[in-house]
Amino acid sequence: MILPPEAHALVQVLALHFTSPTYQRFSTLMVAALVTTGRRTVANLLRTLRHLAPGHRTDYQRVLSRAPWSGLALGCALARFLLDHFVPDGPVTLVGDDTVDGHKGTCVCGLVAIRWVFVRDTTGTHRDEYFFTTDIGLSVSAVIGAYCGRWNIETTFQEMRSELGLETTRGWREKTVRRAAPCLFGLYTVVAILFHTLPESKRTGTVKWPGKTVITFSDALAAVRRWLWAESLLPQAGQTTGLEKLPESVRELLLTTLAPAA
Predict the structure, then answer these.
(1) pLDDT at residue number 105
(2) CA-to-CA distance for 186 and 75, rounded, in angstroms?
(3) Residue 100: per-residue pLDDT
(4) CA separation, residue 26 to residues 81, 119, 179, 183 (Å)
(5) Where are the domains of the chain?
(6) pLDDT (tens digit, 9 = 90+) per residue, 242-261?
(7) CA geometry: angle at 77 spanning 75 and 78, to 5°?
(8) Residues 146, 147, 149, 150: is their CA dihedral positive or negative?
(9) Helices 42-49 + 20-35 axis angle, to 10
(10) E strand or H helix at 129, and its extent?
């Protein structure tokens, strides 16, 4: 799968973690997962690309089920690329949600210093809330601000389910099960990176409404999909000349149909 020049910096980082044949199939699956709507099973991804995904279906299934690559190393490389290009000077504040691991009972031990914050809504429209942090140096506003940052986690999961097919993958082998969902979360990051690399003229397909002031994930995904169809998939399918001959209004309708946000 040949990607446009804007993606080359990211491609070079990801390719280091695969053998050449495996990366060719992995990148094909990655592009297919970006432009596919509906379930993100391997069969459905290959159905989207058709002859642009050469080889047998099982070759692509083995990328997830058998190929020797490390999801942890790939995730670290993607995170490092993201930090280097978006926030090279740091710092980065991370906000977690809910308990990762817990244990109840009388044998739970431990003594740490914590800071409690009590919040009361004087208008009476929200319930009282209690927050605590083990960083006793944080101010009250910092504690509350960190809690509010959790909303990004909630919206990320919602967008993952509605637009990137989270929880629609299918696999019968342990490696596939362990790799598929994390790869979709990585795809969320890939969308952000690719949209960031696009020049303003190619960030098209956004939806506007009164009061909207920021770019949403669906805007970014629609722009990335249009860019991939126009500059990678259709040219490789041999349709560049035909697309250019279409009236602009028809071409716009075609790309809009191929690249819906959800």
Answers:
(1) 53
(2) 7
(3) 41
(4) 18, 48, 12, 10
(5) 5-91+152-258, 115-148
(6) 777 888 888 888 888 888 86
(7) 65
(8) positive
(9) 80
(10) strand 129-133
Q: Which residue has the tokens 């071409």?
A: 251
pLDDT value of position 223: 94
Q: Nearest CA to 233 among 15, 40, 13, 30?
A: 30
* Three-class HEC string of 184-203: HHHHHHHHHHHHHHCCHHHC
Contact by Cβ (8 Å): 69, 22:
yes
Please give the structure tokens belonging to residue 43.
Answer: 């069969």
In which residue are the tokens 């926030």 written?
Answer: 87
Reduce the DSSP state of residue 166 to 3 states and report it: coil
Task: Collapse the DSSP code of 250 into the 3-class scheme (helix H, G, I; strand E, B; otherwise coil) and give the result.
Answer: helix
Contact 216, 158 (CB under 8 A): no
* Structure token digits, residue 235: 């040219």
| DSSP 8-state code for residue 90 | -
Q: Which two tokens stand for residue 29?
A: 């699956």
Q: Would the pLDDT of 240 be above 60?
A: yes
Asked whether 256 and 227 are in contact (CB, 8 A), the reply is: no
Q: Average of pLDDT values for 138-145? A: 89
Quick one: 121 exposed, middle or buried, by C-beta within 10 A (0-12, 13-18, 19+)?
Answer: exposed
Whether the predicted pLDDT of 79 surpasses 50: yes
CA 209 to chain centre: 24
Query: What pLDDT score does 259 carry?
Result: 85
Question: What is each CA distance from 25 to 40, 68, 115, in whole angstroms?
Answer: 15, 13, 50
Among 174, 157, 184, 229, CA closest to 41 = 184
Each residue's pLDDT tens digit, 52-77: 999 999 999 999 999 999 999 999 99
pTM here?
0.81
Query: Would you mind telling me the total number of residues written for the chain in this entry?
Result: 262
